[in-house]
Amino acid sequence: MALSTVPAVSASAAVPAPRTVDYVELGDSYGSGPRYSLLVDPACVRSDQNHPSLLAAVENWQLTGSSCGGATTVALTGPQGTKSPQLDALDADMDVVTLVSHPDLFPDDGVGRTSSLVPLAAGDFAHLRDTEKRFNARPASQARARSVRYVDTYTATIGHDMCKPAKERWIEPPVVVAPAAGSHPNAQGRQAMATAVQRALRCVTHHR
Fold first, then answer.
1. Is 72:86 a contact under the CB 8 Å cutoff?
2. Residue 15 has pLDDT above 80, yes or no
């Protein structure tokens, strides 16, 4: 997840009256939050309980949701069906923007257990873990090249992958049990992702 914030006002400047912080979130279904509570955008399966909404509620920010289920990087600058490019949501008044990476979906040690809920072959887990890590490495590299802070939601969710027991997992298995899309974060996972972004933003503010 890459973050961008506007510069802080200098200490010598007059203190402005409190104003609304405009928050824009970009990304795919891991940002939009399919099958959680009320869908505020059915075409993009975007929920009012996705992790950007949780963060905006805690911080009292004004959220503009642009993430969309099924989006690829092409959707940032080009249309996705009838949807405008996600970057069209950005303007000079934007204060915070987040681009969502994927949390830890599979066991980080590469050893998973095939079950009726996770119908994968034993040899698939390490391959899928490595594929996800390569996927997450691309935006991380792009963020570093642009001096933008990258939020590692993968590390924040290790040990809570889809193979864990129901009380421990933050990622639902392909065969869904909790109110969530298969292979996507449940309520605990969404909260963990929101917390990871919140901590990263506070760190950015602290080091300005």
1. no
2. no
Query: What sign does the CA torsion over 123, 155, 170, 133 have?
Result: negative
8 A C-beta contact, residue 32 and residue 65:
yes
Structure tokens of 57? 């509620």
- C-alpha–C-alpha distance, residues 107 and 118, integer Å: 12
- Strand, helix or coil for residue 207: coil
Q: Contact 72/31 with Cβ under 8 angstroms?
A: no
- Give the separation between CA 24 and CA 67, rounded to whole angstroms: 9
> CA-CA distance, 32 to 77, in Å (whole number)?
18
Look up the pTM and report it.
Answer: 0.85
Angle CA 195–199–203, to nearest 5: 170
Which 3 state secondary structure label does DSSP give 59?
helix
Indicate the fold that domain 20-206 takes in CATH.
Rossmann fold (3.40.50)
> Using one digit for the tens of pLDDT, what is the confidence trace for 97-144?
888 889 999 999 999 989 999 999 999 999 999 999 999 988 787 777
Amino acid at 197: V
As a whole number of angstroms, the distance between CA 68 and CA 169 comes to: 24
Domains of the chain, residue spans:
20-206
**103-138 exposure pattern, b = at least 16 Cβ within 10 A, e = fewer:** bbbbbbeeebeeeebbebeeebbeebbeebeeebee
Distance CA 181, CA 74 (A): 23
Q: Measured on CA atoms in the order 111, 114, 119, 123, is the torsion positive or negative?
A: positive
Report yes or no: 158 and 169 within 8 Å, Cβ to Cβ. no
